[in-house]
Amino acid sequence: MLDMVAGRQCARPQAEPSECMRKPGTQRVEALAAAGAEDRLDGVLLEARGLSKSFGALRVLHDISFDVRRGEVLGILGPNGAGKTTLFNLISGDLHNDAGDLVFGGERLVGQRPYARCKIGIGRTYQIPRPYVGMSTFENLLVAATFGGGRTEAQSYAFCAEILRDCELADKANRSAGSLTLLDRKRLELARALASGPSLLLLDEIAGGLTDEEGKALVQLIRRIRDRGVTIVWIEHVLHALLAVADRIMVLNFGEKIAEGQPDDVIKDPEVRRVYMGIEA
Ligand SMILES: Nc1ncnc2c1ncn2[C@@H]1O[C@H](COP(=O)(O)OP(=O)(O)OP(=O)(O)O)[C@@H](O)[C@H]1O
Ligand SMILES: [Mg+2]
């Protein structure tokens, strides 16, 4: 499957987004074209600068800046309500940011609709699964592969079947998505995101509720996805699963970034231990 993910017409994971992901007329960010920025672009797929978001008087994200490097797995930690899912909603375009900028492969995301962001290579799962309930599991993937990933229907059949096998949903291919258990709906979230052929995959708490064996299988799957060149940002409370695969970790608390760095360093950070693990120094 993963060869197939990587081998889509647009060959997103390996290709420079500049050729196949940039739509005609999309704006190249002036700041990135400035001195020295080309070097940085080689290593950075997504840049977030000064992102803020409020819901009325509730300030949910404040001045969040970070880079996601090509090919890495960035883990995101934080207590409930820290703003993690809201951050994904800003990246995927489900919500508009109040301030700040997002640049993906040299293109500004701000102003682009969610479907357009999907088409240029941003795939996501939802923390609360959102299957197309009137369709079968397989049809859910077909929609993602065709409308989201730009494959023809004929190209999509084998591709989607392989993804279903990898995500352990093959025996439920013809089941109505609305009849799946919560665990299988989470698997479907991942499978559908993969079917869109993302170069950046945003995973929002997909490990919750898995047995140890299932958790290990999920970690293996995520490693295989990463090894094919897909960049991953993973919000996860199942810490041992996240630590098994994350290259770096960023921690949010009350909408502020409180730590970012190597996993070993971050989980030893006194503030992270206090706010996230409840351990006083
Ligand atoms: N559409 C919305 N309208 C109003 N408030 C919202 C909305 N979405 C999120 N919030 C609030 O914003 C805050 C951050 O929510 P968010 O879902 O981003 O947190 P989270 O870090 O993902 O938490 P969890 O770990 O529980 O999933 C919460 O207080 C939440 O109630
Ligand atoms: Mg959340």
Describe what this molecule looks like in 3D:
By secondary structure, the chain is an alpha/beta fold. It has a single domain (2-277), classed as 3-Layer(aba) Sandwich (Rossmann fold). It has 13 helices and 10 strands. It has helices spanning 2-6, 17-20, 30-33, 37-43, 84-92, 114-119, 137-148, 153-166, 182-195, 212-227, 239-243, 263-268, 270-277, and strands at 44-55, 58-69, 73-77, 99-104, 107-108, 122-124, 200-204, 231-235, 248-253, 256-261. The strands form 2 sheets. The chain has a 6-stranded mixed β-sheet with strand order 6-7-8-3-9-10, with helices on both faces. A hairpin with a 2-residue loop joins β9 (248-253) and β10 (256-261). Bound molecules: adenosine-5'-triphosphate and magnesium ion. The site of adenosine-5'-triphosphate has 12 residues, from β2 and α5.
